[in-house]
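Response to reviewer comment R2.3. The reviewers asked that we include at least one raw input/output pair. We reproduce the pair for Chalcone isomerase family protein here without editing.
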Amino acid sequence: MTALARTAARASKPTPAPALPTCVLNAHGQLWQLCGRGIYVWTVFRCYWASLYTRTGHFDSQEPAILDLEYLRTLSSEQTVTISVDEIRRLRPESAESTDQWRASLKQIIPDVTAGERLIGYFDPATGVSFYSAEHALGDIVDKDFASAFLAIWLDPATRAPDLRAALLGHSAVPALAREVR
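Raw output as returned:
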């Protein structure tokens, strides 16, 4: 096995999903089941592990879901917000009028992150998104269109990370290495 193949094999080994933080469970109930888990890799950079939870263990876009991102590298708030808004614009061009407002809201909520830190989103398709760190609530965006558009970054069929989408939805047996292709 080549050194590159060994590195890829190590990178794709599944790690257990961390327990949801107490602040999330206290706000949204204790009964969440893991749908799937995968790692997002952009070019050669492992960025984060993503875990998707629902009440049933199966994703339904009409029901609440929790997306837990466990970062493997440092990202500034500005990087996270810019990438997110750019993806929303690409996936949901009909939302263009709202993205400036969403960008401003995200800038107020999303912190800089370092390796090992978590950002968690509770998505309620009827009301919006509540954001959390592993320790506390970060803020809310009360807009059901935002909830759908933001979750589309990971779960839309046209996502830049189709392998990660499959892993999150439980369609792959092993958490996938997802690669963005530009």
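The longest strand covers residues 33-42. Confidence is low (pLDDT under 50) at residues 1-12, 174-182. Further pairs are available on request from the corresponding author.
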